[in-house]
Amino acid sequence: MREVKPFYLPGGDTGVLLLHGFTGTPAEMLPLGEYLAGRGFTVSGARLPGHGTSPSHLRGITYRHWIDSARSALLDLQKNCARVYVAGFSMGGTIALHLAANHDFMGLIVICAPVKIYINFYLMRLLNLLRNFKQEVQQNIKDPAARKNHIAYDSAPPSAGLQLYRLLRAVGPEIPGISMPVLIFQSTGDGIVAPENANFLYNRLAKAAARDLVWLKNSGHMATLDYDREMLFDLINQFVSRDNNHIFKK
User: Fold this and answer.
1) Could you report the per-residue pLDDT of 114-131, keeping only the tens digit for each?
2) Quick one: 187 exposed, middle or buried, by C-beta within 10 A (0-12, 13-18, 19+)?
3) At residue 136, what are phi and psi to the nearest 5 degrees?
């Protein structure tokens, strides 16, 4: 796979940090980034350690490396923007939840993010997911064009899967302490992250200043690239455009 680098799209005084998923790259967040940049926001598309180059680079990487990298990207963006939001897709959403529990920023967007392991959902598929992760994800993208252009590792070392599990274990207890506004997206047909995650997450965010859960009915796991992307982009734009987030219910 060719190297996929992080991106930075300068704009106004409101910034949005975008975090990609497990075995993915910043490219899966770039369409959202370009959409937001076109509306005047400054956008940072981070690249998590071990990603965007070769699967072998995931060996020796721990979930703490992913968290530290995301934190560094957040702090850098806050140096340039007075108001910052964080949006994370899949594992990037799990990391974004950690940032929200430990740092101050304006609001959080979580897209198809795992927060709990549903054993029955993964039991027969775990090894196949690690061996053929790109194939499993692409089979879960409904839009043929998005499926064709999806960039990700073909597989991941078992050690990386273990670090993902440890990340979920670490972040889970932090979720009830999140108090900022949160917008959650979940695909009903997600075959990578159990859709039940979304309701579990929503219920755990009882202290959030505002929270909303939006179900995506025409997308698979890769929601940032799939058929519902225009609706997803528009709602995220509304979320980061309003200080008081009146469009969301508590």
Assistant:
1) 998 765 545 445 555 555
2) buried
3) -65, -40
